[in-house]
Amino acid sequence: MRTTITHAVYFGLLTALLIGAPCALCQNPQTPAPSGDNTAELQKQTQNPVSSLISVPIQNNSNFNIGQFDRIQNVLNIQPVIPVQVSTNWNLITRVIQPIVWQPYTNEPTGGEYGFGDMNPTFFLSPAKPGKVIWGVGPAFLIPTATNTILGQGKFGIGPSVVVLVQPGKWTLGALTNNIWSVAGDSSRPDVNQFLLQYFVNYNLQKGWFLTIAPIVTANWEVSSPNRWTVPFGGGVGRIMKLGAQPVNISAQFYGNPIRPAGTSPWGMRLQFALLFPRRAGANARPSGGEP
Length: 292
Known about the structure:
By secondary structure, the protein is mainly beta. It has one domain (34-238, 272-277). It is 12% helix and 52% strand. It is built from 2 helices and 15 strands. The protein has a 15-stranded antiparallel sheet that branches. The chain is globular, with a radius of gyration of 20 Å.
């Protein structure tokens, strides 16, 4: 019950912000929404995983109709993105995902476990002055930070990660992929050999709005073929705007899973609220005290 209420409040808050914020900003002439070239540039920066933009996305993923009792799994990802200029020619982008998971008991109508899942940091080395094709490469890690055995895999893992994208006109087209193998951890737990591919297609509209398709395709190479792949289809809408003086990125997406392991969710909802911290004019990519 508590999880259902929390989910409803979160969904209501983001929906109100997406729909009602434009009117609220119009009523206060001292807090204008981003406009013109600044908004267009911020749209492209937030859609580039290796841009020189600090961001703090909070992403809520609800996976519906799991198991025989149609339970709801909820995964809240805290995923800060911090770029650092390590030399004249190179940036290092740190992307950390820390999940907070509600995992229902799928064979029971009530009950479940709540806590931290496994942390997933990724480090991309990317050109500081990219050409038309933007790219980054580096290691991805699996760190067993789960507070309960059913919330994580109990293994330390590592593998390569690559991101490539182009941004012609109003479009952002690209893909991020990695494969992680377990190298240490609880010997009684299954080995990890898992693949992830997130392709993304964004089309930017006026006044900060954008359309987005960004499904996350996964494969578990340790299981047999019928239960190996999860392949979602869907998309959503978002907006770059200001809350007071703070630029934010708000989006809502829905995905169906026509290809999925037995007993897993047939569809899900992804809601995201991200705080954006653009570089000041004349600053380099190095944060100074004080994302996508």
